[in-house]
Amino acid sequence: MIIKKRWPFIGLLAVFIFVGVYAFVDPHKSAGDDAFLDVGREACTVIMVAKSASVDGSTMTTHTCDCGTCDWTWGHIPAADHKPGDTRKIYHINQYKTWPPKEGLKWQIYKKDFAGLEIPEVPHTYAYHHGMFGYMNENQVAISESTIGTVRKLVNNTPSAKIDLTMLSLLGMERSKTAREGIKIMGTLAEKYGYGFNDDGEMFAVSDPNEVWVFEIMPVGPLWTPESGKPGAVWCAERIPDDQVSVCPNESRIGEIDLNNSDYFLASPNVISCAVDNKLYDPAGGKPFNWKRAYSPAEGSAASSGGRRARLWRYFDAVAPSLKLNANTANMDLPFSVKPDKKISLQDVMNLTRDKCYGTQFDPVKGIRGGPFANPNIYGATRTIGTNRAEYTSLVQCRSGLPDPIGGIVWLAFGAQDTACYIPLYAGMTEMPKSFTVGDHFEFNRGSARWAFDYVDFHAQVVYSEAIEDVKKALVEYEAGAIAKIPEIDKQAQDLYARNKAKGLEFLTKYGLDNANKVVNAWWELGDKLLVKYNHFGFYDAQKRARERGKPAYSDLWRKAVRMIDVLTEQEPQR
C-alpha cells in the first residue's frame, strides 16, 4: 500500500529526471518556439549601462565570449603614424577558428588569410586592447559583441564580402575618437567594401564616456558586388537613453526607428530599401518599419522557449523588478531599454554577468536539478547570463573627468564567470600580461592565465555548494579589493600623467601587469586548495590535519529523490 501511494510522485519524478537529462545531453533543443538553436547564435551576452544609470557616472558594457572552443588570448596594438599613400591590409578573421599552439598564435596566423584588399591608411591609428574583437582604444571608445543572425537570403559568405566582424572591430578601434564616430566609420567601410564572409547578423555595443549605442549590421546577400554601386552592408544604430540600461542576448534589439532623430538613430542609406527589395518589409502594409522584424526576427519568450530565451527577460526583471515584466511576453515585444530601479555599480554589473536565474521559474538548482551540491551547471535547459562555457567576459568601463588612458578600463575575467575574477586593464597600458597572450582549449598550459581559472572551476564543480564559498572569499580579496583600490591608482596615475605622459602610462602598465600576475598566481593556489579540501568528496581541514565527518552534506531533497528512484527500480520486472 505504501508503494502504491508513492507511484504518482515517482512517475512525476521519473518524467522530471528524463526531461532534465534530455536537456543536459542536448542543451540547444528548446521546448518552445525555437526548435533548434545553433550554439553560434546563442553565445554572447552584452549588458549595457548608460552613464546616468550607473552609480559613478561611467558607461559600462560587457561581452561574454562563450562559444566554448574559441581562442581566448588577448593582445595590445600600439598607436602608429602612417605616411601618405600607405595602405591597410584587410584580413579575414574567423571568430571561431583556432590552431594548435605549435603552429603559432591565432593573432600571428590570421595574417595568412589575406582578403585581397588594401584600403587607404589614415595618418594616425590609435592604440587598443583586443581579444576576439577590439575592445577599447586609447580614446575610451569601447566595443562589446553579440551574434544575432539574419534571414538566410542576406547571408554573404562569398569573396565579395571583404570585411568580417573581427576585422571591422579592429578598424573601428584604430580610427575612432568617439562611439558615434566609430559607428559611422565601421558602417561606411562595410558599405564600401562589403560585409560578411565569416559573419552575418551581428551586434556591437559601441560606447565612450558619454554614450552607449546598439549597432547592428547585416550582409546584403551573396549577389552583391562593389560594381553594383549599392551598399555592401545594411546597418542601424540606436542610442540608449542616458538614464537607462539594455541587454543583447543574441537577439536583435532595435525596433522602430526615427531617422529624423539623429541624436538617437543612425543608419545606412539602404536601411529600409534593402528590406523592401528583399521582400522583408512592405510599405504598403500600413505598418511602420521595424528593423528587427525585417532583418532578424526571433520569435518566442523566456517561458515558451523553456528558458532558452530567458536572458532578455531575466536582465530587465533583475534591474527593474518594479516593471513586473512577464516571462510569457514575447522577447520581440520587450522594451529596447529600461530605467533601472536603482543606479547600477561596477560590482553590480560583474554580479549580473554571473546571474543564474536563481529564485525564478528557470532556476537551474530548483528541486534536484543541481544534483546533491546545488550545481547550476548540471541542468542545461535554461540559458542563463552566467555560463560555464565562457572563454572570457569583458566589462569595458568608460569614465569622464579623467584623461582617456586612465578613464578607460577593461575588466577581464577568464572562464566561467562564477569562478573567475575580474582583472582591471587600463586603456593606457602599453602591453598585456604574458599569461593573457597564450593558451589553447586542447593543451593544458600553466603559463596561461585562462588555465588557472579553469583549474579552479574544474575543482569547484565537484562539491559546488561548498567550493563556491571558497571562491567568493577570494573574490572579496582580489576583485572587490581591486575595485576599492582604483581611486588610489587613478590619482597616482593622474599626477604622473600631468607631469609626464609616458611615466603615467608606464605606471598604469606596471600596476596592471603586477596585479594580473598576483591574481593568476592566487587562482593557481586556490585550485590546489580546492583539490585538497574536497578530495574524494571529502572535507579535509589542512590546519587540523583531519577529515571532518558529515561534510560535505548531501541535500535532503537529493537523498529523498535517490530513495524514490531506488523504490522505482526495485519494482521493475527482473529479466
Produce the secondary structure layout:
Blueprint: H1 2-25, E1 46-49, E2 59-65, E3 75-77, E4 80-81, E5 87-91, H2 106-109, E6 114-120, E7 124-125, E8 128-130, E9 134-137, E10 142-147, H3 165-175, H4 179-193, E11 202-207, E12 212-218, E13 234-239, E14 245-248, E15 265-267, H5 273-277, H6 291-295, H7 311-319, H8 346-353, E16 392-398, H9 404-407, E17 409-414, E18 423-426, H10 449-462, H11 464-478, H12 480-499, H13 501-533, E19 540-541, E20 546-547, H14 556-570
Helix pairs in contact: 1-14, 3-4, 10-11, 10-13, 11-13, 12-13
Q: Estimate the strand proportion.
A: 15-25%
Biggest sheet strand order reads 14-1-2-16-17-18
- Uncertain runs are 1-40
Measured between the Cα atoms of the first and last residue, the distance is 25 Å
- Output mean pLDDT: 92
Oligomeric form:
single chain
The coarse overall form would be globular
**What class would the helix/strand composition place it in?**
alpha+beta
Largest sheet: 6 strands, antiparallel
Radius of gyration: 25 Å
- Overall strand count: 20
Give an overview in words.
Helices cover 32% and strands 16% of the residues. The protein is of the alpha+beta class. It has a domain at 31-420. β8 (128-130) and β9 form a beta hairpin. Residues 1-40 have low confidence and may be disordered.
